[in-house]
Amino acid sequence: MQNNPIGIFDSGIGGLTIAHALKGKLPNENIIYFGDTEHLPYGGKSEIAIQNFSKRIAQFLIEKKCKTIVIACNSASSVALQSVKEIAKTIPVFNVITPVVNKVVQQCSEFNIGVIGTKATIQSNIYEREIKVICPIAKVSSLATPLLAPMIEEGFINEDISHTVITNYLSNKKLAAIDYLILACTHYPLIHKEIKDYYKGKVTVIDSANIVAEHIAEELKTDNLLNDSAKTEHHFYVSSYTKSFEKSAKFFFREDLKLEGVTLWA
Q1: Which CATH number fits domain 6-95+210-261: 3.60.10.10, 1.10.260.40, 3.40.50.1860, 3.30.70.420?
Q2: Would you give the DSSP letter of residue 176?
Q3: Interior CA angle at 42 toward 45 and 37, to 5°?
Q4: pTM of the predicted model as reported, rounded to 2 decimal places
Q5: Which of 66, 108, 135, 185 is the catalytic position?
Q6: Is position 185 annotated as part of the catalytic site?
Q7: Which pLDDT tens digit goes with each residue over 77-116?
Q8: What is the dotted CATH code of the domain comprising 98-208?
């Protein structure tokens, strides 16, 4: 069981930021990644649709003998966590929201916390709910930023287009008084620097990838599920393959990789 792979999935290739952070934190682990590029972005889909997609992908990862499943997508984490757990049964399931909330509340419960993410994530109100369960006095301001994920998927990073879109969103009055900003989408670590530059040190920008990777590493160690072999093998699957996605995937994972197209829906 320890030598079985970690299964990771996202609506596209943004979750590769989590995969990259996990590989850095747990270099002995095998990874199987699935990006649902046929249905991206999840942020504009219904809860039922996201739940159905997530369940089918979870089943695929279970068939690949994954020892744990990581929902590397905020939209799916916000509305499909329970659905995936029901499919996974005894296999541990991790999401990208809970570890970040726990870390953030420890650091900044007395400050104003901003959250940006997809429509599905923001409409679910999951960050504010989970933060206030731990710290009822916390102030949370959320803003849907639906153009950011597709912008990043298309490679518009650190140039005029991305600067304009980011500035337009971050200048929204909802975020005017924040002290901390949660990047509630696994695509957003790739524009972390641009967002930090916008705030010029006045707001602490929280990148979820490393926080999630650290949490998973701790849990796998506690559950005695860490791989004891130094020989690793990674596989990367997508539901709709294109050369442009493979090129973008290399950028997200920050290493060379080969995508394989897999049909999960007849």
Answers
A1: 3.40.50.1860
A2: T
A3: 125
A4: 0.91
A5: 185
A6: yes
A7: 999 999 999 999 999 999 999 999 998 887 665 779 999 9
A8: 3.40.50.1860
